[in-house]
Amino acid sequence: MKMLPDGGADDEERWLAEGIAGVQQNAFYMHRALDSNNLKDALKYSAQMLSELRTSRLSPHKYYDLYMRAFDELRKLEMFFREETRRGGCSVVDLYELVQHAGNVLPRLYLLCTVGSVYIKSKEAPAKDVLKDLVEMCRGIQHPLRGLFLRSYLSQISRDKLPDIGSEYEGDADSINDAVEFVLQNFIEMNKLWVRMQHQGPVREKEKRGKERNELRDLVGKNLHVLSQIEGVDLDMYKETVLPRILEQVVNCKDELAQFYLMDCIIQVFPDEYHLQTLETLLSAFPQLQPNVDIKTVLSQLMDRLSSYAAASPEVLPEFLQVEAFAKFSNAIGKVIEAQVDMPVVGAVTLYVSLLTFTLRVHPDRLDYVDQVLGACVKKLSGNAKLEDSRATKQIVALLSAPLEKYSNIVTALELSNYPRVMDYLDNSTTKVMALVIIQSIMKNTTCISTSDKIEALFDLIKGLIKDMDGAQDDELDDEDFKEEQNSVARLIHMLHNDDHEEMLKILCTVQKHILQGGPQRLPFTVPSLVFSALKLVRRLQGQDGDVTGEEVPATPKKIFQILHQSIEALSCVPSPELALRLYLQCAEAANDCDLEPVAYEFFTQAFILYEEEIADSKAQITAIHLIIGTLQRMNIFGVENRDTLTHKTTGYSAKLLKKPDQCRAVYACSHLFWTDDQDGIMDGERVLLCLKRALRIANAAQQMANVTRGSSGSVALFIEILNKYLYFFEKGIPEITNTVIQDLIELIRTEKQSENNVADPSTEAFFASTLRYIEFQKQKGGSIGEKYEQIKTT
């Protein structure tokens, strides 16, 4: 086949135009001859018209345009032949003989096929004989492009005239075999011509020839479509004749493009039921294909198609088991990977993804099959380091995600022994992505993981999130992404639950073992979740006690508090002292509710140590001291000695804060430590009054300091805040706080407000006015409280 010279696109257009002009000119004379019933001239001009198709100068695309012009004219010629034989102008047999005298082979064969169509329709000869004659004669054209289009024409005019079952051209019992043989023979010859195109012309234009052949593939594939439409091709004939003959041609042609396309055609055009029943035969061809054929795509399509068939028709599932579809696919994939030694990892993994998808759709109850697929993938990956190919990595993620999506339950995936082994081949970043997918699956399906063994396996899967992998650091990770990852782990910890106390304790120990390996960046996110999860168990066990002895440690609050202490201690070493202090105080409060005074005291001790040694920022100190005061005020378990020690420490810390206003507020907050409303609570009015007086002194000192540094006495807000504390305890009935004390404080505030150095502050004015209104409201309210307020003057 002559190839186009460089820059021949314009020439090709000209050649096409010349060819079309030749077709049209000869068609004109042919029509004039047809109109005058001049058969001799009609054959002469039709042969000259068809001679235009003898060109070798056109590309397949342009040749197709020329062919279609001639094809349209041939349909009109066929109608004339049919009419001529019907009215007796010329017998079809004579006509069949007559057209064979055309001078050139190609026009002769086109005319022969056209008359052959009329011959079959006339039924003057069996269809099988005419078709056999035509398909044999077409061997006369061995030029690839011209031969392909000629045989395509033969296929086109014969498709509705095959001696099929139920057809008007059906002959004896063997006629169906003749129909199949005709289509198969035409297919085989067309495929040979198609493949031959690849090997004609210079090597440098090989890629161009490949593209041109790709444009012609449907001419060959139509034969398989015709075969699939023949009614007489039942399962037995397909199994015994059709498929083996097609596969023999596919394998023997040894052409990558043809093998890929034809295998795909077989899968697409024949019924799923046939594929299922001939699976072994079909799969046996795959390892025999050329090494560069994209087998993974074809095999994947076959598996996807059969799995969709199973999903759409559940009644056929027993057939899948009967033919052992899974075992055959698994075996075929193994052979293909073995035969194609150069197949990249991504290709092999893609095959396993398709096999796994097939398995999950067809055999969702067979976890052993699923694990077998994962095991085969591990075997393929063995010997490789971490995957660096992003496409292969993506396929591994798809492989690991499929069971999660199918079962909606990570517990099922945890039963797959090869699941973590596949994950081991992912690089660190992808391991994290997969871990997040697993956690999101748990969250989405609200999966409760309730045994320590399962949690051990789960944390092994998500280890990329809970500790540094192979010395890798998270410095390069975006802060927001890192926070999101760790928050996911924290949420996961709350999903771990078991109603059995002993098992829940084992779960907590397992979680602690893993998260304490997280390093300084992770602990502030994960330890709080562990602490609060453990405190939930403490509340459930509230009231139980017992010494921690023996190997089988019972689930007691004491044992859980030991775990809590270790976990928070690790957090305080990070360091993250403010968070650790909060958690110590939470644990102290829980120990208080469990009547464990030594434990509660120890937690407070640790909180104080953190405050003294680790918390240096003044704002953090203020927050911490108020948390300590608030927690200590709610404690009711401490004996006199322990409570005195803690309250003394707290008031001491309060008075040592950096800024005087902060000192003042912390000290008057300490007053609540000496008066609680609980039954058997502390009611020490003297110490309450001492705290408030101390706060007043500090407030006064703050005023004087402001006067020295800024030339003004500053706001009297501190005095008003202290007044409100006095009123609170006054209503509680503390005898040391009398109406006289309150009246004196009101007068002090008024004096301070009226001093020359005072700076007017609207918010302070409003605060004071509101406080006075409250006193008046209590007076008007009456009752015992109202009587107490009667002697206090607000004006």
Structure in words:
This protein is about 70% helix and about 0% strand. It has 38 helices and no strands. The chain is elongated. α1 packs antiparallel against α2. The protein is mainly α and about 800 residues long.
Topology:
Layout: H1 9-35, H2 39-50, H3 60-86, H4 92-98, H5 105-122, H6 127-137, H7 144-158, H8 175-197, H9 206-229, H10 235-253, H11 256-269, H12 272-277, H13 279-285, H14 295-312, H15 317-322, H16 325-339, H17 345-362, H18 367-381, H19 390-407, H20 410-414, H21 419-423, H22 428-444, H23 452-461, H24 463-466, H25 479-494, H26 501-515, H27 523-541, H28 557-572, H29 577-593, H30 597-613, H31 618-634, H32 640-654, H33 660-670, H34 685-710, H35 717-732, H36 739-754, H37 762-781, H38 783-789
Helix pairs in contact: 1-2, 1-3, 2-5, 3-5, 4-5, 5-6, 5-7, 6-8, 7-8, 7-9, 8-9, 8-10, 9-11, 10-11, 11-14, 13-16, 14-17, 16-17, 17-18, 17-19, 19-22, 22-25, 23-26, 25-27, 26-27, 27-28, 27-29, 28-29, 29-30, 29-31, 31-32, 31-33, 32-33, 33-34, 33-35, 34-35, 35-36, 35-37, 37-38
Keywords: Cytoplasm, Endosome, Golgi apparatus, Membrane, Protein transport, Transport
Protein name: Vacuolar protein sorting-associated protein 35
Membrane topology: Peripheral membrane protein
